[in-house]
Amino acid sequence: VITGPYAFSVNYFDNFAPNNNSIGKENIWTAENIGGSSSGGIRSRWHLTMHYNQTPSGWNGFTTLSDFYNKFEATDVRRGVAYNYTSPSAPANPGKRVNVGFLIGQQYNWQTDAPLNDRTNAPLIFTPEVKNIELEKNLEVTGIRAYKYPIDFQFDDNGNVDNDYVYFRLGDVLLMKAEALLRSNGAAAGLAIVNTLRANRGATPLASLTLDNMLDERGREMYHENWRREDLIRFGKFLQPIQERPEAADPKYLIFPI
Predict the structure, then answer these.
(1) From first to last of its 258 residues, what are the pLDDT tens digits of the chain?
(2) Could you tell me which of 19, 22, 129 has the C-alpha nearest to residue 69?
(3) At what angle do helices 211-222 and 170-182 cross, to 10 degrees?
(4) 175-181 contacts at long range (C-beta below 8 A, 24 or more positions apart)
(5) Which whole-number Å values give the CA distances from 139 to 59, 110, 120, in the listed order?
(6) Cα 173 to Cα 168: distance, rounded to the nearest angstrom
């Protein structure tokens, strides 16, 4: 049972929306941004993902691995939704496919829903496969794109968008408590907390709680919130081989250079 001033938001992505200061019920500590006048560069959170031909035009940058994307159930809202913009930043004629979360497959015009093309005039279809080094036309379409902060259309051109930057929120607190219980012979109580969270996110209950699925759950809940590296180190997974890197990493990467 969750008590106190915090509660699950109506929509998971409300916590990151332009008006998240009022509808982000899970946010405990944020950096305030004031639309149109001051901001900490939050629009980079969608520009780094968007293709050049999407709106707003992006940098065709970061992607995620299909191994991580496949950790989400199809019903898990954290994987992505067609977000309902309810703030003043909402576009006048929003299309049906202004999605937040992971972008995969054919991409569409945000106003008309017309299929988009890449700069070679081929269909803009983001594919699950991506390599460490991509060349030529693959640069524009390979890889699943992710962004978590719903776009502030009103102030995107200005740069001073209204989305408050989230440092700390309820989902993290719940998973920290569940992990602490798991690591202190309280797996049953930890499982109950995790399944309460998963129920709100549209995911099916876990049958048991282990260190492996605890780490997976933190990944699903906390992606793009700057905790993954610390989590992987704490769970002893940071140096292990991963998709697109079949060998173990050098232990020197456990620390940051000064």
Answers:
(1) 677 889 999 999 999 999 999 999 999 999 999 999 998 889 999 999 999 999 889 999 899 999 999 999 999 999 999 887 765 555 555 554 568 999 999 999 877 789 999 999 999 999 999 888 887 778 899 999 999 999 998 899 899 999 999 999 999 999 999 999 999 999 999 999 999 999 999 999 999 999 999 999 999 999 999 999 999 999 999 999 999 899 999 999 999 877
(2) 129
(3) 170
(4) 175/214, 175/217, 175/218, 175/221, 175/222, 178/209, 178/214, 179/214, 179/218
(5) 11, 22, 11
(6) 8
Residue 79 · residue 223 · CB < 8 Å: no
H helices of 142-186, in order, are: 170-182
Closest CA to 186 of 194, 198, 220: 194
Q: How far apart are the C-alpha atoms of 93 and 7, rounded to whole Å?
A: 31
| Burial 148-168, CB ≥16 within 10 A → b, else e | bbbbbbbbbeeebbbbbbbee
Half-sphere exposure of 148 (CA within 13 A, CB side): 19
Residue 105 gets the label, from left (phi > 0), alpha (psi -120 to 50) or beta, of left
Contact 182, 211 (CB under 8 A): yes
Comparing C-alpha atoms, which of 36, 22, 17, 50 is closest to residue 156? 36
Using the structure block, give the residue that is written with the tokens 């994987």.
79
Helix 187-200 crosses helix 170-182 at what angle (to 10 degrees)?
150
d(CA 60, CA 65): 15
Three-state SS string over 99-148 comes to: EEEEECEECECCCCCCECECCCCCECEEECCCCCCCCCCHHHHECEEEEC
At 111, give phi and psi (nearest 5°). Answer: -100, -40
Global pTM reads 0.92
